[in-house]
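With this grant's support, we have settled on a layout for protein records. An illustrative entry appears below exactly as we store it:
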Amino acid sequence: MADRPSFVVQDQTEVVEFLSARLAPARRIDTHGAVVFLSGDRAYKLKRAVKFPYMDFSTVERRAAMCAAEIAINGRLAPEIYLGVAAVRRGSDGKLALGEVGEPCTDALDWLVVMRRFDEDGLFDRMAARGALTPEMMAALGARVAAYHDGLKPVVGFSGPDDYRQSVAADVRQLREQGERLDPAVNEALAVALPAALEPFVDLVARRSAAGAVRRCHGDLHLRNIVLIDGKPVPFDAIEFSERMASIDVLYDLAFALMDLCERRLGALANRLLNEWLWRIAELPSAPHDAALALLPHFLSRRAAVRAFVDASSAALGGKDSGTARAYQRMALEFLQPSPPVLKAIGGLSGSGKTTRALKLAPQIGRAPGAVIVRSDVERKRLAGVALEERLPAGSYTPEASARNYAAILARAERVLRAGHSVVLDAVFARQDERQAAEALGRRVGVPFEGIWLDVPKDVAQARVAGRQGDASDATPAVVERQFGYDLGRIDWRRST
């Protein structure tokens, strides 16, 4: 062990060899912080005796506490996976033995997190590699993460402006410490660009913290920590080892998955995830999530930087090439490149395909991961305080309610645009003054505007709305019939089918 990396502080060879013999694992997984043994229907995670600036597993006592914390924290997100902790101890005969889950032990040599095994082909990083991730999975993940974030209590004392500055400095230091495993020139560019991307928004950071956006989140929500179980995405392996690292802005929590999808050139899926999360997450009136998008390039860059030095550390442990780490490093710099926002509006009667067109168009517009889709159907449900899939009573669709709804979508779009992010407006826009208001928004904010009007035969529109399930729109074939009688006025937007 004379050549072991400096961050490995204790020799665990005896325990690892015992577990390899005792469990006869079908496979062993080695990371920078753990050794995982897959045996039968269970997985056993041994925390490595390592000490990083951001993670300390250097003593048996510390590892015991962190095993217990992992069970407690991950149980909220993935109770179907996490079972409990078990001790590795030395018996009276001098031989090592493995205790039962939950069995107390006062003289353990080490501790294990015990989990139910799942089909590893369902891990999102593997599914991404074989092209198996779908927009529907991203929608389900966005809904699950939004509900999880909404269920967390705000915390104080973390993620203020000085915390951000210190974390950025630590990230830069750890990038540099990787030496030639990472590109030194890119590290130096990030050392300048990361602080520069933060400083204009430190007041926003403070407002987000005061508004309750900082919570004890998952903290490590990349694709390798999400798995499909029974057709549903399940995030697991949340950070247990650092309250500071996991007490973060909820948007920064989501940013890890967004970054990972972007690095794999799956921008359309990242865009779907972001939009679903934004549609579902509860409002923070004093520091809206829309306004927080000004921080998203910084968040994405930091997530890529973290993955770069973590993967470089793992490569050092295994004596492997760090090409993947360098790819994340380059991506960290790419996220900080400017991309001016634009505003597009898609109008058309119900069933004309507005949302389908918006979802296709949004990933191609503006900075990563593409434009925010501001849907009138979604905004209407949010204003009413009901779930997106819940139908509103017919009396909800009055001219006054429609006016409030259009004012709300324009206000939301303006917040997003002023945060530097592009927008696609998705609404009927049946009235000429509604279309003119969208055009005026572009002029007021000073961004390029394009309006698109979708034409569709009535029978096609009626068939589409009749076949919808689980959508925010309440349109029916009867609604379509009525809309086709509207006086639409002069339509100056580019017409399309």
